[in-house]
Amino acid sequence: MRYAETGFDLEIDLTRGNIERVATDPELTELYLGGLGTNAKILWDRVPPEVEPFSPKNLLIFGTGLLVGTPAIGCNRTVVSTISPQTGLMAFSMMGGFFAPELKYAGYDKLIIRGQSPDLVYLWIQDDKVEIRDASHLEGKGSLEAAEMIRTELDDPKVQIASIGMAGENRVWFASIEQGRSSASRGGIGAVMGDKRLKAIAVRGTNDVNVARPAEFIGMCNEVMEYIKIRNENPIPGVMPILAGLGSPQEMAIHDEKWHTENFAWGNSRTRRKGFWTEDVEENWTETMRSMRTRLVSCHNCPMKCGATISVPDQPTYMMKCFSKLTYTMAAMSDLEFGLKIAQRATEYGVDAFSAPQVMAFALELYEAGILTDKDFPGMPPDNEERFFWLLDRIVRREGIGDALANGTHWAAEEIGNGAHEYAHNNIKKHEQLPLKLGMLNPIYFLMYSTGEKINITQIEGNYPQAPFVTREEREEFCKDWVQVPDERFKEWFLNWELRGEYSIPHYPGIEATCEIVNWQEQMHYIDDATGMCAGLSSFPLKPPYHIHNLPTFISNATGMELDEERLTRIAKRIRNLVRAFNIRRGMSKEDEKPPADHWKRRFPELEEELLTEYYRFKGWNEQGIPTSESLHELSLDYVADDFLERGILQDEG
Amino acid sequence: MEATKKKRIVKSIRIDVDKCNGCRACEVICSSFHATPKYSSNNPERSRIRVIHYPLRDLYVPVYAGEYVAAECAGRGMYTIDGKEYDECAFCRASCPSRGLFKEPDSGLPLKCDMCESDPSLSEPMCVQWCLADALIYEEREEEVEEGETLEEIEIGLEAMAHKFGWRKLLDTAARMSGKD
């Protein structure tokens, strides 16, 4: 018997309409766990670098994390992996909600989709019964709208559905896959789903998911639940409210937006607005949220409530989470009411809430600068807010200027030319970033921005405080019950970290400590992405219930695998290197590994070069950031080394 | 026989639908607790508590399994509470032929909440323990009940068989089979 996993993948060829249930190799679980780990292995084996994102040969994999479907609290991630049309690299997007557990209960660890359907279809998976169904009546429908129609025609409210909206159908390069409560948004994976002519996947499962050592496993789950209770009652002092608790940043629950609105940049990631958060604004925005937020909602088997149901008057109800609350508001220099209104339409269209607002603000900046002119915007309304709605409508239909904009700021600038590139200023690896512009270079963040292949800062940062605490007493207090750190050195680095002076950024905490801190934070994310654990209970918040000291036993009790910290660390490292190898084989290079040029005002080119070089060495990569044959061999990734040698990416040292 | 008054503890779960966030932890842990061996597997379909859940209509009703009923009832009314429409079945605890809820997926046999009775006994049923939203509250109250006749095990069995086949057939079969020995 297989524990925690089902041991079966569902292979679907949309070109031929072929469906197969395929047993998986248990040895791959030992090497890569599940979720992202095994997704990456499949992509490496089956998608050679010449395959284009919009090719029937590109795979679209919906992988459940290894522990999803067990009672592991907060473990519900669907990891969607494919080649991103925007970056040309492995798209790295995940969603919580209820889809992955339902897929496990239906008896599958992954859906592996290849080919391209001649007509728009949806998949209906009901345990062993799998059908490819006509979706022509769903064409152009909103993501949630289509999901409701499917639920009605299948006559089962318990069906879980992942779907795309018009943006995915029209292959917008930042289209998302929506799942009601959650979405997998980054990297344009919705466009790949649209290219495959797959409107939605509906799943319903009624089978058991087994665990290897039941009493021990549930004992640990109960401990996690107890810890969450304690942690919820004791927010961390000294940090801003959204970082004090567990879960995704509690954007739906917390009304105090002083930090975001005054520290993040508005418009096309340009303007900091000090003093914006006045009492009037606070009262107004709190009232907006109170009147439109119906309920805080959870993902599968998680006591946190990071999402919310939002009902804007005269608009259909939708669900929201996290920072999408403010991205539209701030891009349009508007207020929260506008943000919640346009987010409803954007969710139905299915677009990424980081990229979409920035693309629209970028377009309007080009218009102001005269690079785009009236003839590019025929019929655009004069009102600022209406312009955003108008632009969104053009983009998802790829009409007029919307066609170029639908490829994101980098590629739109390429097409528009005439100096437009200066305005696509907030990207890493051609992918729009959080609108954040700061003063002094932070060495930890420098490395995370440069080398993070999830290309999104929230997917690499986490367990280490983002900024020093003001007094040493506060730091000592913080360190008292900081059991999550790998070893005591991390506490030392934090204790000595000052806001100003010798022990402050950019030269503190020094190269070695910076490498260790970045590596630790990244490693925890990679473990989560393989187990399907929500980062909000593990790799993202300060002092989470899951950490490197309890996860090995936890995974071991669920699966029966032999695991300790060293072995788990090695697996995480293996997955990390495989993802990197896949991207390097697709052309990613050191040139791509940099934050947006204007992310910090004060830069230190020599220090940055040294940081990057040393971090590469720390990771077992050569000076070009390519994993060496030796380190690949240590990770049992000899097949990657062989491929690199054959392609001339690495040279034989012998 | 003279009926006597006796005190007993009635256990129940009070449900606050306004507090439910729809996480389904109750379903997960219930089915896990009732697995054999205990906690060895989970499957919400086997759970004795289910969350009736329509997020876009803001309906969240956890309901735990009650009695098995042989036939569906006549009541299929709609209730409007705070502007939200609920199907009457949403509040019904019965394992009933008209719906799939509260039946073992393999055998179709009815499921019923047993308040996680176990030895040693738990402080609260597992679903309540895992509901940090406090949508499920465990309550005990003392009630005086008339102590009726308690049936012996064999009597319970016979009653069930009579219910299924009728007394006549049961007696005939018993007579025929006992005569063989």
- Put simply, the count of helices of chain A is 25
At CATH's second level, what is the architecture of the largest domain in chain A? Answer: Orthogonal Bundle
What Rg of chain B is obtained from the alpha carbons, in whole angstroms? Answer: 20 Å
Uncertain runs of chain A with pLDDT below 50, 5 residues or more? none
Classify the beta-strand content of chain A into a percent band: 5-15%
User: Strand order of the main beta sheet of chain A, please?
Assistant: 2-1-6-3-4-5
**Shape call of chain A:** globular
3D shape of chain B: globular
Report the CATH topology name of the largest domain in chain A.
Aldehyde Ferredoxin Oxidoreductase Protein, subunit A, domain 3
Describe this structure in words.
The complex is a heterodimer of chains A (654) and B (181). Chain A has 654 residues and is of the alpha+beta class. Chain A folds into 4 domains: 8-204, Aldehyde ferredoxin oxidoreductase, N-terminal domain (Aldehyde Ferredoxin Oxidoreductase,  A, domain 1, 4-Layer Sandwich), CATH 3.60.9.10; 237-354, Aldehyde Ferredoxin Oxidoreductase Protein, subunit A, domain 2 (Orthogonal Bundle), CATH 1.10.569; 360-432, Orthogonal Bundle (Aldehyde Ferredoxin Oxidoreductase Protein, subunit A, domain 2), CATH 1.10.569.10; 438-647, Aldehyde Ferredoxin Oxidoreductase Protein, subunit A, domain 3, CATH 1.10.599.10. Chain A contains 25 helices and 20 strands. In chain A, helix 11 (324-331) packs across helix 12, helix 11 (324-331) runs parallel beside helix 13 and helix 17 (443-451) crosses helix 23. Chain B is an alpha+beta fold and 181 residues long. Chain B has 2 domains: 4-150, no CATH class; 151-181, no CATH class. Helices cover 22% and strands 25% of the residues of chain B. Chain B has a two-stranded antiparallel ribbon. A two-stranded antiparallel ribbon of chain B has the order 3-4. In chain B, helix 3 crosses helix 4. Chain B starts with a strand and ends with a helix. Chain A binds chain B through residues 69-71, 73, 98, 105, 144, 148, 157-158, 180-181, 205-211, 214-215, 217-218, 222, 225, 228-229, 232, 294-303, 305, 309, 316-319, and chain B through 21-25, 28-29, 32, 35, 37-46, 52-58, 60, 105, 129-133.
